Amino acid sequence: MKKKFLPLLIALAFSLVLLSGCGSSTTDSKGASSKTSSDNQTSAAAPEITQAMLDSKPEEPVGQKDQFKGLTIGFSQRNLAGSEWYENLIRVAKLEADYLGVKLVVLDAQSNLAKQVSDIENLISQNVDAIILNPQDSTGVLPAVKKIHDAKIPLIVVNSALDPSGAPFTFVSTYAFNTGYKSGMELAKAVDKKYGWKDEIKAVVLSANPQELESDQRRWGQLAGYNDYMLQKYGKSNLKVVAYDYYKWLPDEALAKMQDILQAHPDIDVVFAACDGGTQGVVPALKAANLLGKVLVTSIDARKTVLQWIKDGDKGIVASVSNDPRLMGKWAVFFAAHAAKGYVTPATFYVPNPAINTENVDKYLDPNSKY
């Protein structure tokens, strides 16, 4: 499945470059795509992406060693503290940069929009060759994004979606809605297996940030996946959302929110968590309330800790859909380096997002993984 699916995504992504990829593109009489960048660099073809690169392990570099020696790429990261996901995003981005011979300048916005805007302006003033942006706010950073374009610096957006009006840029992430959809579908299957039809399933929805596209798309997908399963099997849905809150992608925030929710709603049946960081907060809250293993939880990220919980089968974690920061980090650097040299880069590049449950967890759980 993986070998057939990934090339399809790449083909789709490159077909979209006409809409929002870096620079403008043209097609010659042989059908080859080329790019004329906004700063009149020599036009170049798209970077070569082989099947071996697509199949590479998350921490295995792609491209050619020292291919872009001398380039400086700025990375405006929304936050680092308290998140192993963000830490792995940056860690593997640095590994890829070192492999390609690129200097990577990482600035941490510390979950502060004003600081991220200032960080972007800082990178522009350093005259970096490309900028990678993980936006704190999908619309709030747009004035700073305009400055990136005005400076004719190629832009790669990673992980969190940017408002489309910020184009042109290359977006490296997973397909957030589809990832959420798979997560919700897996939860519905687990509910059906446990109860069959039950007239009412009381749900807690833990989203990450208000009015953030990545957070919204995951939530929309999770609820759609759950409801679609029930509609297809029973012709109706039984989901009742009794509580909804945000936890800023952080386990401690999720723990506090979940504790408050359980005081008001001790009889919940399921939890939708926007990421494994949320699940890592939900588990101790459920344990303290003597509900661990009784409440079913679905998640997104496929972190080693959560995959182990799925394998153990005693905490109620039924699934986590892969959203690997290591893959995003290395491919963001790969495309940023190529864009800096005038190559065509895709409008969208999605990394694979398999749903991992009790049946296939052994295939994905690596006890030696750093993530």
TrEMBL record:
Coiled coil: none annotated. It holds the Pfam family Peripla_BP_4. Residues 1-20 form the signal peptide. Keywords: Signal. SUPFAM superfamilies: Periplasmic binding protein-like I. Residues 81-342 form the Periplasmic binding protein domain. It is found in: Cell envelope. One of its GO terms (cellular component) is cell envelope. It comes from the Bacteria. The keyword Ribonucleoprotein does not apply. GO terms for molecular function: carbohydrate binding. Its main location: other. Residues 25-44 have a biased composition (Polar residues). Residues 25-45 are annotated as: Disordered. Belongs to the bacterial solute-binding protein 2 family. PANTHER family: D-ALLOSE-BINDING PERIPLASMIC PROTEIN-RELATED. This is D-ribose-binding periplasmic protein.
